[in-house]
Design brief:
The complex is a heterodimer of chains A (about 300) and B (about 160).
Chain A (H helix, E strand, L loop, with lengths): L10 H4 L2 H9 L1 H18 L1 H4 L8 E5 L5 H8 L3 E6 L2 H9 L5 E4 L13 E7 L15 H15 E11 L4 H13 L3 E7 L8 E7 L27 E3 L8 H9 L4 H4 L10 H17 L20
Parallel strand pairs in A: 1-2, 1-4, 2-3, 4-5
Antiparallel strand pairs in A: 5-7, 6-7, 6-8
Chain B lengths: L2 H6 L10 E10 L6 H7 L5 H10 L15 H9 L8 H12 E9 L5 E5 L2 E2 L11 H7 L6 H12 L1
Antiparallel strand pairs in B: 1-2, 2-3, 3-4
Classes of the chains: A alpha/beta (about 300), B alpha+beta (about 160).
């Protein structure tokens, strides 16, 4: 894990024409990408969201690159729209004459689509790029949240997004999870081949909108030899955040009249003597620190003068 | 870029629909007739935007497009009559416009003024690729090509 591409250069710089050519010439790269895309399409489970299995769906391919994952979608008979930031990768996709539409955009800036446009979304080896800040004004947290929020919006309710990624460490998974949950997604992580270090693959399977009671949670693929229960739990589910029991607490405080209610007829509510005293002490200490002149502290500090003075 | 994709696209800054203008190259690539898919897409479309886009690419299918989107009853009728041989004129027009018409070179204009370039069928929506109208003057000074409409008033100013 010493040489992670996302720590070398921003994606639009790293994926230059030389890197892009690997995605057509290197048989291994092509093979890996295609298999990842096939598995992602399988996890997308379009039969539950699209009305019929025979009708094509409109799918978003996030970080489409040279369109290898798009080819898998095209072969399955779907229409797709691909987005990528690297012009060199997109140029190769145009050369290869892919069936889908291509758009050049930074995913961290959000997805520019109308609400409820797509039947599903796939993304192959992209998410880890969004965890990097390439410029000082970029914040990975904001960018990931922006990405998930706009992704949630442009998917149809009940549609799925399957995002394969290479996490650099455990905490990065948690980090990505948190942002997806904030954006309203429900879902879990599917880890394929969890006991192998090379074949191990992480898929974030997210569902936009109310969970469908009829669709089953996806199962992780295991090598045929180890049909027994894996040692690591392959699937984790996001727990809905427990709501504080606000109803009972409001009943308890209803009888007590709050200061705001008591002084509702006044323009400003009076500060308690103690609060005034504390403020004066604090200000006194601050001015002393600054070397300015202060009056000596006494028991009369912060008291009101009598009216007969 | 298909007109279907254009119809779903919004301005990344202002979240408003983008108008196609200055189209110089359009491709027609025939695909298999997809009545089910088109019927599913109709509720997601911005109909007036589709009509404007059809005018912008000078498609001859504009006559077959009604002024308003088909109502649910009409959709049911279209669904019952989807026939491979004899396509209803609306469906044929939508097949041609949404799935077969590709804008290759053109511009996407937001109503707030800025526009994005489409090259080789790829719209560039990156924040630093957006062209704002105020930048046209500086673009001309650096020798970049500028629309003729904006160039004329500038010439008049320098002449007087």
């Amino acid at each position: 894990m010493a040489h992670r591409p996302e720590s070398k250069a921003p994606p639009e710089v790293f994926y230059d024409s030389k890197e892009a050519r690997k995605y057509i010439l290197h048989a291994h790269t092509v093979d890996v990408q295609t298999r990842l895309a096939e598995r992602a399409l399988e996890l997308l489970d379009l039969s539950s969201s699209a009305r019929t299995t025979t009708s094509p769906a409109l799918i978003l391919d996030l970080g489409c690159g040279t369109g290898l994952s798009g080819d898998v979608l095209s072969r399955a008979g779907h229409f797709w729209v691909g987005m990528d930031i690297s012009s060199a990768m997109l140029a190769v996709a145009v050369q290869r004459d892919v069936d889908g539409d291509l758009i050049r955009q930074d995913l961290g800036e959000g997805l520019p689509f109308r609400i409820g446009s797509f039947d599903g979304a796939v993304s192959i080896s992209v998410l880890q790029w969004l965890c990097q800040a390439e410029r000082s004004e970029q914040d990975p947290r904001t960018r990931l949240f922006m990405f998930f929020m706009t992704l949630y919006a442009c998917l149809r309710r009940g549609a799925r997004a399957v995002l394969q990624f290479y996490p650099s460490h455990e905490r990065q998974i948690e980090f990505i999870f948190t942002q997806a949950k904030r954006a309203g997604f429900d879902g879990g992580l599917v880890v394929d081949y969890p006991n192998s270090s090379r074949a191990k693959k992480f898929y974030l399977v997210l569902r936009a909108g109310p969970p469908d009671a009829t669709s089953r949670a996806p199962r992780a693929a295991l090598p045929p030899s180890s049909e027994t229960v894996p040692t690591i739990a392959p699937e984790r589910r996001l727990q809905p955040a427990g709501k504080p029991d606000s109803a009972s607490s409001s009943v308890a405080t209803a009888a007590v009249v709050s200061p705001a209610q008591r002084y509702a007829h006044r323009k400003t509510s009076p500060r308690s003597a103690l609060a005034v005293r504390r403020f004066i002490e604090k200000k006194r200490a601050r001015r002393l620190r600054q070397g300015k002149s202060v009056r000596p502290a006494s028991k009369y500090s912060g008291r009101r003068r009598s009216t007969r003075f | 870029m298909r007109l279907l994709t254009h119809n779903l696209l919004i301005c990344p800054v202002h979240k408003k629909p983008l108008a196609i203008r200055h189209v110089t190259s359009v491709d027609i690539i025939a695909v298999e007739y997809q009545p089910q898919f088109i019927l599913r897409m109709i509720p997601r479309l911005d109909w007036s935007l589709l009509r404007e886009a059809a005018l912008a690419v000078e498609s001859d299918c504009i006559d077959a497009l009604p002024e308003t989107p088909p109502r649910p009853q009409e959709l049911e009728f279209l669904e019952s009559t989807n026939d491979e041989v004899e396509r209803p004129p609306v469906m044929a027009a939508l097949q041609r416009l949404l799935l077969e018409t590709h804008v290759v070179v053109g511009q996407l204009h937001c109503e707030h003024g800025e526009y994005y370039q489409i090259d080789e069928g790829i719209p560039n929506l990156l924040a630093d690729a957006a062209v704002y109208p105020s930048e046209k003057v500086s673009a001309q000074a650096s020798g970049a090509p500028v629309d003729e409409e904006t160039a004329i008033p500038l010439d008049e100013q320098t002449g007087s």
